[in-house]
């Protein structure tokens, strides 16, 4: 009995991140030194910055300012020269770079590349040169009280560049928005030999861990260049709320970190059993921060791929946010973006780093994954059970166990004797398979041997292949920073008979890139040693946060080549590790979460933050990866997961099976209805993705993006909109919930749209107000904002592609003036024809109360696609009027110069235009209250007469 | 490629697409005001134009107006495919007109009648029927084999039952005879007992010195015992230490690394600790205190017979026997061993006395008396054994062994094969255990049969942080006994599928069709 008690006690203390495995600021040399530096400076009132701009070196040309920043050293040492360049980009963004002039001679005898790493931008930016067509941008020399400064004006913004000390002040209509180096925390640890270190230290500096690492697992770090950190502070004046810098399992609004030894950290790690409410590093890193308030927004993109800490100070000046950015090395590079709304910032950020790829439509469907589906039979049985239980799905996943001994590019022949047959069977109902391919390559087989022979691996500090440990045991890592790796990688994915592994497999095969932080089980912080060497002899510490991106990009490009001659051209690649720019080629998920309610809750701010940071194709493992969810938790997770842009259920190998039919009734039915709701809303999601892919709008969009005028909406993190559709969701994430509080964010009408069922009576309030809503296990609380029009497909099919010809339903929610607008994007869902030859349908809907009409305008001109879509119709139009539409007893539709009557039925404030059968491919107008229609023309006849039945 | 939605062709002169001919009367048009109309089947108040049937728009709440499309979320009946040349099929509406040729149900391709002008899926009934006939031939052959085995097993079962019944009759007769013999012997013993009464002097003599002597004799043993106990306690402490170390390991290891050796160690330790936790370790037990007690008792030992009257001794010895020097030592020794070695019998009451029954009662008993009472004892034991045997046979006969007692024939049969990571061993009416890397986990012991084809096993090894393992084993028809699948729908509750001929039945054509899978690659 004694024993039993003792062992239960132990049980309750289990699970929790292994904090000690990951560096805090205090035991991370460069972070400690910069925080120390900051504290010293803040405590001195009379501190004079050592950094000033040498006016003699300054040159200004159109849209560009360059100069040398001089860093004064103690002990009469010669000053350090830090070349500065400031470029004005399109849209008034400014791009700042500060490098260090280093003496090549001092590096003699060292293998490592002697430059500061300046290629984070190469990976993050969409194209090599940023668009600065605005060469007419004038940077004027000015002076004030005898101090010279330079100024650039854009719209109602001014950017003031101060010289001594170096500062940048961004103001709008003379109100200061942002001050760069406000607190004089600019610090660039210049190169010095270890023996001279003492001489080079200023009184404000510490020399903690400058040439060695005292952290338990990192003692072997040779730190060949010594201290070379960079740091700078940014004050967001009168911005209470800042967002972004994923990935953290934390709130949407960034928190004050000044009293913690763990500031927000960006260092891609395979974090084991991460905790919620944490600033600890995770799998991905996007050094982009958004500051937003009613009327104004700012974006800051810190272009650096090294280990980075960000201190957030919200307490020293309440109402404003001071931030301190500290990176281990690399050049100091950042971009400032300005705009009235958060969405403008996303647009500008997307112009630099690229927008999200428009994914294959199928990848927005339901993904069924687990570690692992054991064998071919298991896979095919899941496939048919989905149909038996009427659960639509598009992707089935295979984790590492499909391989022969974790050797990627091989199949376990016992369990998967005939992958070709398996893929064909999945293809029968247009389902896809995803297989995992990780960057660690087991030693001693043809793939790793070739990688080593071709010198394509990550190397040790002595530039010899680095051997670490991962799933397969001893492994080497492919160095995808090496351009030659692409060719090697392409070969493995080739769609040709000579490719033994996947050359014959059908094109419904896609790729999952995991463990690409990279995860190395016996490396420091479970990753590669920082002094490992990559292509061009760059140290791993410099490139760490872009490695994951370089890896999934290599996969994406290999898949592009594999698929380019087929119909399914768009690759789908899921990555765990990512960086700014990853959105161009991959989707992400939040890694190894747990089957607990707090992980369900935190998934929303995490995914919303990802969207704010330009990476909208994001999801969390539905059900939780580690552990076994209760039936209620699993059900609520599905009801929440259907709103994730990337919707995948996944489970650890040791957890029990939990496919939708496992929990039984009533859970299975509720889960089925949830997934079916996702499928009926696929056109809404796809349209949201389209807009995200051209202007950066988050797919699940924070409430303050939709209603930016009210400060009350700025910290809402458990409620969101789907793109610009007007669909607002507040998932239930509380156990045993009987009611929830929903924030009605503005004075517009909000129609109940729970579980996709539209009701014609709206809730309306005068400003942001919480309303209580009772819920039961079935309830998925959804609202449709007045003024919106959405297109959905309500008929259940086995997979998204099989819905292609099914008709649409239009749901129109009138605003207080009785008007509404909406959009629909349609294409073939899988090829690049939309991009290459304009094969897409972009439709704008409008219901105007004044003209008592609904119009649909096609603002694109597809050719082949129109023929494919000739049989696709709007079969039904539902108007939620809340009493705002009058005289709707009769209606007629006119399309292609043909007119026919449409039956109108009304039940209270709900108006239904039934069996409308209006073709989606051309413009049409519905007019209410017209009585002059004599003939009821059958629509197929209309189409026939318009020649739309031509042979393709 | 022609893409048309021929909305009107859903009504083909005599029959409605998707409607079972048996229901065709329900789809006859009505004439109202000179117009062909039709009424929703479960709501005749909804009157439709006849053309609204199968116009790909849902008008009736019961879906009856769209038997041939997927327009309605609910449907009355599944879509009917005539499959001329094969067997008619019924397919779900969500599979209609989606471009997929679901030949396994509609070999005639009629499920895609609206897709690409109905040209998407050409009629393959001929090919599929050929496939089916080949399949049927094979399936029936296999089934015949299975049924033959089953028949053999059935007759074995019946024979076994018959043998058991006969056996139980014989035993019943034997018991009757033995009981008669016993009562005779008892009578003799009673008679003899009168004669030996008063023969107890020797007994008294044998107990002289009492406690002091007992202690002297036992002292070296007790001191050795004390040392041995100390040693064991130290060993046990080490076990505790090791358990602590392992507990830390299982709480802190990284399961994400999925190291097979670590996982195996963790899993087996979890099993070990979970099942150990069930045992009640009595914390009041203190070996030193117990030894003290032994010392005290041996020092103060007084021969019970010295205090008690001869009558009571006699009475006691007849049924139980008195505690004597030797059995006293034996008792404490047993107690110590049982407490420290944690033998489950330790808890049993009256151990001391029960053991007496087997020990010689009295040195002074006459040989005749002894042999007589021994004979009685033996006979009593025999009767008891026979009764036990009898009731076990009776119990067995009353058990549910399925129809014709068929499962009786496989009792004691074992089936072992690998499913996923583990090898499973299944014993009919015995136990199920899972083995992996030499560590066996007890999943359950047979408990009952549900519905004639599900064997329930329970009271298996306790799960880490969960219940005792249990399993339901569903028997499905197949020639070779084999475990087909395992799943764990609830924590530590396993569901197995076991293939065996004993549940095989003749198959109807419908069942054969249902089991048949179209080979699409051959079409």
Automatic annotation (TrEMBL), chain A:
GO molecular function, one term: carbohydrate binding
A GO BP annotation: N-glycan processing
Gene Ontology cellular component terms for the protein in this record: glucosidase II complex
Main location: endoplasmic reticulum
Keyword terms, alphabetized: Endoplasmic reticulum, Glycoprotein, Glycosidase, Hydrolase, Signal
Pathway, per record: Glycan metabolism; N-glycan metabolism
Subcellular location: Endoplasmic reticulum
Domain Glycoside hydrolase family 31 TIM barrel: 357-688
Sequence ranges assigned to domain Glycosyl hydrolase family 31 C-terminal in this UniProt record: 696-790
Record domain Glycoside hydrolase family 31 N-terminal: where: 83-311
Signal peptide from the UniProt entry: 1-16
Family according to the record: Belongs to the glycosyl hydrolase 31 family.
Protein name per UniProt: Glucosidase II subunit alpha
From TrEMBL, chain B:
Biological processes annotated in GO: N-glycan processing
One GO location term (cellular component): glucosidase II complex
Keyword NADP listed: no
Coiled coil stretches, renumbered: 136-195, 369-396
Keywords: Coiled coil, Disulfide bond, Endoplasmic reticulum, Signal
SUPFAM superfamilies documented for this protein: Mannose 6-phosphate receptor domain
Pfam families: PRKCSH-like (PF12999), PRKCSH_1 (PF13015)
Positions of the MRH domain: 381-506
Name of the featured protein: Glucosidase 2 subunit beta
Naturally occurring in which organism (per UniProt): [Candida] railenensis
């Amino acid at each position: 009995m004694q024993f039993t008690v003792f062992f239960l006690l132990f049980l309750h203390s289990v699970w929790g991140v292994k904090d000690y495995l990951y560096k805090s600021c205090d035991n991370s040399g460069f972070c400690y030194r910069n925080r120390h530096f900051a504290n010293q400076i803040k405590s001195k009132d009379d501190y004079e910055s050592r950094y000033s701009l040498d006016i003699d070196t300054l040159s200004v040309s159109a849209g560009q300012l360059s100069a040398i920043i001089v860093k004064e050293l103690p002990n009469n040492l010669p000053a350090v020269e830090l070349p500065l360049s400031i470029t004005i980009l399109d849209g008034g963004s400014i791009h700042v770079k500060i490098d260090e002039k280093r003496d090549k001679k001092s590096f003699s005898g060292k293998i490592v590349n002697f430059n500061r790493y300046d290629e984070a931008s190469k990976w993050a930016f969409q194209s090599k040169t940023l668009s600065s067509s605005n060469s007419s941008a004038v940077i004027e020399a000015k002076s004030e009280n005898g101090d010279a400064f330079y100024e650039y004006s854009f719209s109602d913004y001014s950017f003031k560049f101060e010289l001594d000390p170096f500062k940048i002040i961004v103001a709008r209509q003379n109100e200061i928005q942002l001050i760069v180096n406000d607190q004089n925390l600019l610090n660039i640890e210049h190169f010095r030999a270890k023996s001279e270190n003492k001489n080079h230290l200023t009184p404000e500096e510490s020399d903690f861990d400058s040439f060695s690492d005292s952290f338990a697992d990192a003692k072997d770090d040779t730190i060949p260049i010594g201290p070379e950190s960079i740091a700078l502070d940014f004050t967001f004046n009168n911005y209470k709320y800042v967002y972004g810098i994923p990935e953290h399992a934390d709130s949407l609004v960034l928190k004050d970190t000044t009293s913690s030894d763990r500031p927000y950290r960006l260092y891609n790690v395979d974090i084991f059993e991460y905790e919620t409410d944490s600033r600890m590093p995770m799998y991905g890193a996007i050094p982009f921060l958004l500051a937003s308030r009613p009327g104004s927004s700012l974006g800051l993109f810190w272009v650096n791929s090294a280990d980075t800490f960000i201190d957030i100070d919200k307490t020293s000046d309440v109402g404003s946010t001071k931030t301190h950015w500290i990176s281990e090395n690399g050049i100091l590079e950042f971009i400032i973006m300005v705009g009235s709304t958060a969405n403008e910032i996303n647009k500008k950020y997307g112009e630099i780093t690229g927008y999200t790829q428009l994914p294959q439509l199928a990848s927005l469907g339901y993904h069924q994954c687990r570690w692992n589906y054991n064998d071919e039979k298991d896979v095919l049985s899941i496939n048919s059970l989905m149909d038996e239980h009427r659960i639509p799905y598009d992707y089935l996943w295979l984790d590492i166990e499909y391989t022969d001994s974790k050797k990627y590019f091989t199949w376990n022949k016992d369990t998967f004797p005939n992958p070709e047959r398996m893929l064909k069977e999945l293809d029968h109902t247009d389902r896809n398979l995803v297989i995992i391919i990780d960057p660690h390559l087991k030693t001693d087989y043809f793939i790793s041997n070739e990688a080593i022979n071709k010198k394509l691996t990550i190397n040790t500090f002595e530039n010899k292949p680095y051997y670490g440990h991962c799933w397969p045991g001893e492994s080497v890592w492919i160095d995808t920073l090496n351009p030659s790796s692409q060719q090697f990688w392409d070969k493995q994915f080739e769609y040709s008979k000579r490719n033994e592994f996947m050359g014959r497999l059908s094109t419904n095969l896609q790729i999952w890139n995991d463990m690409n932080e990279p995860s190395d089980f016996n490396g420091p912080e479970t990753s590669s040693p920082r002094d490992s060497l990559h292509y061009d002899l760059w140290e791993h510490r410099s490139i760490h946060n872009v490695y994951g991106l370089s890896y999934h990009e290599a996969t994406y490009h290999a898949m592009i080549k594999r698929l380019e001659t087929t119909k399914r051209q768009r690759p789908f690649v899921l990555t765990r590790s990512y960086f700014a720019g990853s959105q161009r080629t991959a989707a992400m998920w939040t890694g190894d979460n747990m089957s607990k309610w707090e992980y369900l809750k935190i998934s929303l701010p995490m995914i919303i933050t990802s969207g704010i940071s330009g990476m909208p194709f994001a999801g969390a493992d539905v059900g939780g990866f580690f552990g076994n969810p209760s039936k209620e938790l699993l059900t609520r997770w599905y009801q929440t997961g259907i709103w994730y842009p990337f919707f995948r259920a996944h489970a650890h190998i040791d957890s029990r099976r939990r496919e939708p039919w496992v929990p039984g009734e009533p859970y299975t039915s509720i889960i089925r209805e949830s997934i079916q709701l996702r499928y009926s809303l696929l056109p809404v999601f796809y349209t949201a993705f389209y807009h995200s892919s051209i202007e950066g709008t988050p797919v699940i969009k924070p409430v303050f993006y939709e209603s930016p005028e009210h400060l009350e909406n700025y910290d809402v993190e458990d409620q969101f909109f789907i793109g610009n559709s007007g669909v607002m969701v507040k998932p239930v994430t509380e156990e045993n919930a009987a009611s929830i509080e929903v924030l009605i964010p503005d004075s517009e009408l909000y129609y109940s749209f729970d579980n996709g069922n539209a009701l014609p009576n709206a809730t309306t309030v005068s400003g942001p107000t919480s309303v209580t809503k009772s819920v039961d296990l079935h309830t998925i609380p959804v609202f449709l904002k007045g003024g919106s029009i959405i297109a959905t497909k309500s008929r259940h099919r086995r997979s998204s592609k099989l819905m292609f010809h099914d008709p649409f339903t239009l749901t129109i929610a009138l605003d207080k003036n009785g008007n509404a607008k909406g959009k629909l994007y349609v294409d073939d869902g899988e090829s690049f024809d939309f991009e290459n030859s304009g094969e897409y349908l972009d439709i704008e809907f409008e219901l105007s109360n004044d003209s008592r009409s609904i119009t649909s305008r096609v603002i694109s001109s597809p050719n082949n696609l129109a023929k494919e879509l000739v049989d696709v119709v709007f079969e039904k139009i539902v108007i939620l009027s809340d009493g705002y539409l009058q005289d709707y007893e009769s209606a007629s539709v006119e399309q292609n110069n043909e007119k026919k009557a449409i039956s109108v039925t009304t039940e209270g404030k709900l108006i239904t235009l039934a069996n409308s059968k209006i073709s989606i491919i051309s413009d049409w107008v519905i007019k209410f209250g017209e009585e002059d229609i004599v003939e009821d023309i059958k629509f197929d006849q209309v189409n026939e007469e318009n020649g739309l039945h031509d042979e393709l | 490629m022609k893409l048309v939605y021929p909305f009107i062709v859903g009504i083909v002169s005599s029959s409605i697409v998707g409607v079972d001919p048996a229901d065709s009367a329900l789809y006859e048009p009505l004439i109202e005001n000179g117009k062909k109309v039709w009424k929703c089947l479960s709501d005749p108040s909804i009157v439709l134009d006849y053309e609204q049937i199968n116009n790909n728009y849902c008008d009736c709440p019961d879906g009856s107006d769209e038997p041939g499309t997927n327009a309605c979320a609910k449907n009355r009946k599944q879509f009917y495919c005539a499959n001329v040349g094969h067997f008619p099929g019924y397919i779900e509406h969500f599979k209609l007109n989606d471009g997929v040729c679901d030949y396994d149900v509609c070999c005639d391709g009629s499920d895609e009648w609206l897709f690409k002008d109905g040209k998407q899926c050409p009629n393959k009934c001929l090919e599929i029927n050929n496939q089916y006939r080949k399949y049927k031939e094979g399936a029936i052959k296999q089934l015949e084999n299975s049924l033959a085995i089953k028949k053999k097993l059935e007759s074995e079962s019946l024979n076994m039952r018959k043998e058991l019944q006969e056996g139980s009759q014989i035993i019943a007769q034997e018991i009757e005879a033995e009981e008669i013999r016993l009562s005779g012997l008892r009578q003799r013993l009673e008679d003899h007992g009168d004669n030996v009464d008063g023969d107890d002097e020797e007994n008294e003599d044998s107990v002289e010195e009492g406690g002091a002597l007992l202690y002297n004799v036992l002292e070296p043993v007790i001191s050795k015992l004390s040392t041995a106990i100390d040693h064991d306690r130290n060993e046990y402490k080490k076990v505790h230490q090791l358990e602590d170390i392992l507990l830390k390991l299982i709480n802190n290891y990284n399961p994400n690394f999925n190291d097979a050796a670590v996982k195996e160690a963790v899993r087996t330790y979890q099993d070990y600790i979970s099942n150990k936790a069930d045992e009640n370790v009595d914390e009041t037990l203190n070996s030193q205190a117990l030894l003290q007690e032994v010392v005290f008792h041996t020092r103060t030992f007084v021969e019970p017979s010295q205090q008690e009257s001869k009558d009571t001794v006699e009475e006691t010895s007849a049924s139980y026997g008195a505690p004597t020097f030797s059995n006293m030592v034996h008792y404490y020794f047993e107690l110590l061993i049982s407490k420290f070695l944690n033998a489950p019998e330790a808890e049993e009451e009256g151990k001391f006395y029960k053991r007496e029954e087997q020990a010689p009662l009295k040195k002074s008993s006459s040989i005749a008396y002894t042999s007589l009472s021994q004979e009685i004892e033996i006979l009593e034991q025999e009767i008891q054994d026979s009764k036990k045997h009898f009731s076990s046979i009776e119990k067995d006969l009353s058990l549910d062994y399925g129809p014709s007692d068929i499962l009786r024939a496989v009792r004691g049969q074992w089936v072992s094969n690998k499913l996923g990571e583990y090898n499973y061993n299944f014993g009919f009416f015995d136990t199920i255990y899972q083995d992996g890397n030499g560590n066996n986990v007890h999943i359950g012991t047979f408990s009952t049969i549900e519905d004639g084809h599900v064997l329930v096993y329970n009271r298996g090894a306790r799960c880490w942080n969960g219940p005792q393992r249990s399993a339901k084993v569903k028997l499905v028809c197949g020639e070779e006994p084999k475990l087909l699948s395992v799943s764990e729908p609830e924590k530590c509750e396993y569901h197995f599928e076991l293939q065996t001929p004993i549940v095989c039945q003749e198959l109807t054509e419908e069942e054969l069709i249902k089991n048949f899978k179209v080979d699409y690659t051959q079409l």
